[in-house]
Amino acid sequence: MKxxxxxxxxxxxxxxxxxxxxxxxxLNRFLDDSSQTIFDFNYxxxxxxxxxxxxxxxFVAELKVEYSILFDKEIVSQGDFTNKLIFPNQEMxxxxxxxxxxxxxTLPSSVYxxxxxxxxxxxxxNSTWLEELTILKKDSFLSDLEFSSYVVADTxxxxxxxxxxxxxxxxxxxxxxxxxxxxxxxxxxxxxNVQFPVGKLTQKISILKxxxxxxxxxxxxxxxxxxxxxxxKIDISDLKEGYHNIIIEVKDPISNAIxxxxxxxxxxxxxxxxxxxxxxxxxxxxxxxxxLLSTKTKIWKELTGEGKLKFIDRFWEVNDTDTSTKKNEFYxxxxxxxxxxxxxxxxxxxGWHTDRGRIFIKYGKPDDIVYGNTDIxxxxxxxxxxxxxxxxxxxxxxxxxxxxxxxxxxxxxxxxDPYESSSPQLxxxxxxxxxxxxxx
Length: 440
Fold this sequence. Notes:
By secondary structure, the chain is of the alpha+beta class. It folds into 3 domains: 136 residues, Immunoglobulins (Immunoglobulin-like, Sandwich), CATH 2.60.40.10; 132 residues, Sandwich (Immunoglobulin-like); 159 residues, no CATH class. It is built from 7 helices and 22 strands. Helix 2 packs parallel to helix 4 and helix 5 packs antiparallel against helix 6. The longest helix is centred in the last third of the chain and has 16 residues. The termini are far apart. The N terminus is likely disordered.
């Protein structure tokens, strides 16, 4: 069993780094009231691994799922359905968050095989999953283990298939937890076929690494009825990185019957941020505010240092223009634009901090620049101006004025950019005779 679980773990890792659609499948078995085995095939994949198309309804992706149950190599049952994902904006499509779903079937014997195929309708990327199915013994009183990173109290019918008791149990199919990000794991399992109406079972939970026992948790379970559900929260904050076995042993002290189930989980090293452009974190958020609405950045002050790093990483990952490559093209382009701004617009302050720097970082080199001087009849002394026009990919116009004649141009006019605004004193700065046609 341990070797089989390791194979599944390695297969999951293989899928993550191959050209196949990286779907991770986790099989768990439970007994129904007739002592038949329920097979739950949970699967997950990141949103950013699917191809989304822009439609009138929003950004849409479709994952087609086809499954076949075989008996002696003959198909005895099959089905298919399509998971349709719709998001109102593109941000979520680039997210590494997971889409989850499951298939459940009930079978009476162990001579079946399950074959599942997953296909991204728009990219045609696909993957398959194949496994012989072994039923639980009818006198077993311990199911398989379902893993989660977090659960949420929920008594509604929302995502009903993922409810465990009154909890919304978000299944972690690959059993991988990131050091420093998750302090606890959650386990769901069931005890059934209890042979007495009222009694106690003794339970022993062991966590091992490299065959060394790291922790043992002992408890007693009060049993009433034929089925007892268990939701265990286990602290993993002090465990080291690597592969761990978890063994649950339940004993009936009256009959001395013992059931054992074994599974695994892995703790991985937290990825160190590769998206730092500045020494000071506060400079990072100033840059991000060039691209984000204030509603997106208002939580910055409430974040811890680690939370701020996650916020930065999340921004660059979501805006990566080509997730099929290891390099983040958007991050690299922004970095190059910052260097350009510091070289060409730095006067008493770094160029990326200036108004011209902000616009250049967001939109790059203008398609056209008009240089000139304000009218001598203005309320203020004659000053130089620059008009930047973007016409190829969008229709933006910006006018910058050198107020202090020190080349630190300030933005006083913006057209079509919802993030920027024009000065109410525009006419006073430019003069009544200024040719507004220059802004067309």
